[in-house]
Amino acid sequence: MDRRLVTISKYLSKHLRHAPQEIGLTLDDEGWASVDALLEASARRGFPIAYDDLVEVVETNDKRRFAFDATGDRLRAVQGHSIEVDLGLERREPPETLYHGTVERFLASILGQGLVRGRRHHVHLSKDVETARKVGGRRGRPVILAVDAGRMHRDGRAFFLSENGVWLADAVPPEYLSRLG
Fold first, then answer.
1. What's one GO MF term for it (predicted)?
2. Residue 98 class from Cβ within 10 Å (0-12 exposed, 13-18 middle, 19+ buried)?
3. Per CATH, which fold does 3-77 belong to?
4. Cys-Cys with 94: which of 28, 38, 84, 159 at CB 3.0–4.6 Å?
């Protein structure tokens, strides 16, 4: 993805997941924004986005962070919100093991208190080690944690699967975590 599209993706992440009000954008209860309103709000704030660029970001983003509705008139982020939205996620049975990428400086805290969602709606988990490695590598040398998701699920803990394949949980207590390698 070229630099302009990466910049647009980051802009969309900020304003569709965390701060729509900063550009005068209103999301509905499910996190949808009118495409026309988004393009107008972005232009008013000095960050014009061409509709074709918006489509390209949605279609080519490697993490599939955004989705159009069936009509193509609305857009939303599919997970990772810090603002209150209802994505309509249903409980799902996870694979036996999921993974979380982090860095060494957070490891002691995580092993002590588990994975907590912080300001987001959920803890984000990966279905494979490589994805977790990429996520952890954004902040330094990655540390990969295995999550005993099957046991968590059998113990009554809820898991959800976002539209883009990210597994979500409210929290992961430390007894379900182990460090790989």
1. transferase activity
2. buried
3. Arc Repressor Mutant, subunit A (1.10.10)
4. 159
The pLDDT of residue 181 is above 70? no
CA-nearest of 145, 131, 138 to 180 is 145
Rg (CA), the chain: 17
Name the β-bridge partners of 77.
66
Burial class (CB in 10 A: 0-12, 13-18, 19+), 132: buried
Query: CA 30, CA 7: separation in Å to the nearest integer?
Result: 24
pTM confidence score: 0.71
Q: Is the separation of the CB atoms in 96 and 111 below 8 Å?
A: no
Sequence ranges of the domains in the chain:
3-77, 98-179
Token pair listed for 14: 């900020």
Kindly report the number of other CB atoms within 10 A of residue 122's CB atom.
22
3-state secondary structure of 9: helix
Interval 27-77: pLDDT, tens: 999 999 999 999 999 999 999 999 999 999 999 877 788 999 988 999 999
Per-residue pLDDT of 64-123, as tens digits, reads 889 999 889 999 998 878 888 888 888 999 999 999 999 999 999 999 999 998 877 789
